[in-house]
Amino acid sequence: MTQEAQTDSVPCAAWPEALLIATLFAMDPHGLGGISIKGRSSPFFDAWLDLLRELLPEGAPLRRCPVQTGDDRLLGGLDLATSLALGQPVVQRGLLSEVDGGVLVLPMAERLSSATAARIAAALDEGQFQLERDGLTSLLPARFGLILLDESIGPEESPPFALLERCSFRLDGNGLGLADLAGDGLSLEDIQRAKAALPSVGLEQDALVDAICEAAQAFGLPSARPALLCLRVARMVAALDGRKAASLGDVTLAAQLVLAPQALQLPPPPEEPTPDEADQQPENQDEADPAEAESEPAPPPETPPDTQAEAEAKNQPNPSEVLVDAVKSALPAELIAALGSQAKPNRQGRASGSGGGAMQKSPLRGRPIRSRSGTLKPGERLNIIETLRAAAPWQKLRRRPQAEGATGMKRIEVRKSDFRIRCFAQPKEATTILVVDASGSSAFQRLAEAKGAVELLLAQAYVDRSRVALVAFRNETAEVLLPPTRSLARARRQLSDLAGGGGTPLAAGIDTALMLALAEKAKGRTPRLLFLTDGRGNIGREGKAGRAVAMADALLAARAVGLSDIAAVHIDTSPFPRPGARELAEAMRAIYAPLPYLNAQAISAI
């Protein structure tokens, strides 16, 4: 592109929207909750953040909170150095209290833990939080706004929903640079004047509140927060324009900024009257008796209504329809296609570690979780900082009077009751047990897909330290063809000789898988059962043929799995989903996944 073409190019449409959002957010960061910005850190984001810093009141803090920030820095606690110097507990404020009246920036928000997100959300709702740590109790103010920098790549990752729900605006900064910046926002004096007038700004008509609620419901937003935030943004837009009441245009703009980015579905199409209903009234009029019509006198003419007032009432637009059309026009084309195909966006984000098992305590290795008091045993690690925190409040009582003329620094007296020992947690090894129905005429297709699934799971096992086992049942018994292993070569050798055909001893297969899972659980691992069967057993536990007896035994075995508190998935391999297979999954408390067209990739994904 030539220099002349760059000069004549139209500014990016995202910048005016980002400029307006920064202006509105600077008026009341805490009242609007926050802003979620999609995209990695870029010059566009830095320039927008500099603009926001200029629009905030003088002295308003703006702090960054790294994703690995612990509770000591986030919430605060005991100021160790000052407490040791003064001999009394001194509270040290954390980030949530330091940012009171300003903005908290969370980079890499998609990696934020649920516990940290819950603490931030609670402080955001209340505007304050109760600090209870290290023997201290204090109520600290925390009126701040959030900026979530979402640097995720795929749709399976997203910031915690507890924080996303509290954000009024969402911006997409992907592909934007400094060349897209054009125009300046309002001055700080204009923002302060609008903020002072905001409490007295109302609505031109009460029907606008119902219109906002109906629009939020039409786009699948079950929470009341989006509607309340939309109403607040509409009043702020009117205050910036110097008006005392928000109009339909203000509410429409607010709906495009707040409701459109959070839409979960498209509004249902309007219902059209059926031809029978439309023709019913004319037919009834034609069937009326003409003699009766001639005999009855015509009623006296009523007073003609105010035709001009009726015409004006008919010409007034329906606020609800206007908002729905405005929000739909603001949706991106790809989002409309996704919503039209009933593809709902991921709201909770990806869970951590799909292959790891449950967390278990470990004295020496893993992720630090907390510290506990107790006697220091061989092999355990002492948390020196937490030990000094516990000893600091008692130093004035423990210090002995020094001899006259003695010089030197005062020593810190630490006792055994002050010891704080580090505690660690590490994930257990996970064992995925595939239980394959190797009976029937269609067994060859199922076995082929099971082999592919085992190889995919084994490849993943090298990454997340999980194991894979294979149980097959046919004829009258079930057997463990592949004990829990991470050896890919051994798995291939065992699977190559797997044959199919015969009856379906479903209860025997469930019993064998449960025994193997309990054995893995006793070894300290986290077992997971994955059943590949159509759920139509015809061989009972005693080896006798009979559909009724076999299904009764299978339900008893499935209830045993449900009582064992072991995670399970039932993949229905029948051509069409059956109620019996769903009943079997409910008895096991398992996830039911009907897959008529089964493949190895689908099995591995579940």
Would you write up a description of this structure?
The chain is of the alpha/beta class and 606 residues long. It has 4 domains: 12-180, Rossmann fold; 187-269 and 318-343, Helicase, Ruva Protein, domain 3, CATH 1.10.8.80; 359-395 and 414-427, no CATH class; 430-605, Rossmann fold, CATH 3.40.50.410. The strands form 6 sheets. Strands 17-16-15-18-19-20 form a 6-stranded mixed beta sheet, with helices on both faces. It has a 5-stranded parallel beta sheet with strand order 2-5-8-1-9. The longest helix has 22 residues, at 443-464.
Keywords:
26 helices, five-stranded parallel beta sheet, 4 domains, Helicase, Ruva Protein, domain 3, alpha/beta, Rossmann fold, flat, 606 residues
